[in-house]
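Lecture notes, unit on protein representations.

Consider one protein chain, 384 amino acids long.
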Amino acid sequence: MTEQAKVPAIRFAGFTDPWEQRKLGEVAPLQRGFDLPVNQMTPGPYPVVMSNGIGGWHSKYMVKGPGVVTGRSGTIGSLHYIEQNFWPHNTSLWVTSFNGNEPRFIYWLYASIGLERFGSGSGVPTLNRNDVHDLRVGFPCDVAEQRRIGTFFSRLDSLITLHQRKYDKLVVFKKSMLEKMFPKDGESVPEIRFAGFTDPWEQRKFVDFVEASGIRNKDNLQLESYSVSNDRGFVPQDEQFENGGTMRDADKTAYWIVEPGSFAYNPARINVGSIGYQSTRKNVIVSSLYEVLKTDRSCDDRFLWHWFKSSLFTKQIEMLQEGGVRLYFFFDKLQKSEIWMPNVDEQRIIGQQFDQLDSLITLHQRKLELLRNIKKSLLDRMFV
């Protein structure tokens, strides 16, 4: 923002007056919170606001709301808008003196400046409020414009919270379905089944339907190198590691060639979900540290993929992994693992349903990321 144009890049229609430049301490000064030992906190209706949010409820309050609270030590940059009377803990700083300005606007003004950059200290970071107070900020003198901005961002935040809740509910729902659509320990059929399927499930060992499928890259083919991450599965090494990490210059003749329709996992990190499914249309290569495998036609890969993400597979790993300080789950241990499986048609439908649920979860995740990016951009462009 230039000195000549003391207005934000984006503005609501009908407001044309230039914004004023004032020190933040003159507009809405931060004050230090009050001590309240946990053993002296008596249950009541008033929130005790600490550095990272509401840490309890007390029978007394120290300041009247509304107020803006941020972390003084520990969690720097965390902001909270408190509508009611509250007790600001001594790990926090608070504002209730708004000098005639709109409280919600002041909250979003503080959100726009990035308080974490004013933290100091090599141990537990501390917010230096004097540095914050000296910061010159722009704000509209017209309280109506302040109110429009405050209301707009509060509604945007509510929309983000709504999508966050939807996303969280879907994640919990998927976890529940993984437990109900695969047989529990000691049972041969799941709690929930699709209509039309009545045949009993069969307990099988992996040795009956999987085989090691990695092919050594002995001719040093210049195929794209991949890694397997805990959350995304197969990922190009250039994405997983900056500039490919040390893997870029490694000898690739010992790498495994992985064909489409194969699984690969890290035997030292499978307990934290380091497994992937190769769904590209090309051959790729992975480190020789990985185990690479394929299934036969009696197994639907998408069914198996979601079983791998269930607690049932985790229990198999815990029973069969080996090692000392670091535990490993090599391919021979996977072959000894057991799984209850229906016929391929039922497997396919289960896999498809979980794929659709994953797509819905990803959709809400992307909406969340988009809304957060919009909010971040608007905080930059709607304040001076």
